[in-house]
Amino acid sequence: MKKISAAFDGLKFSEGTLAYALKLAANSKARLSGVFLDPFYYHSYGLYDLVGTQGISRTKLEHRGAKDTAARQQASARFEQACREAGISFSVHHDDDFAMPELLRESIYSDLLIIGNEENLSHHSEAPPTNFLRGFLSDTQCPVLVVPGEYREIEKVILLYDGKPSSVFAIKMFNYMLPWLRDKETEVLSVTDPKDEKELPAADLMKEFIQCHYPRATYTLLKGDAQEEILGYLKASCANALVVLGAYQRSAVSRWFKTSMADVLLKDTRSLLFIAHQK
Question: In terms of CB atoms within 10 Å, which of 7, 96, 137, 193 comes out highest?
Answer without folding.
Answer: 7
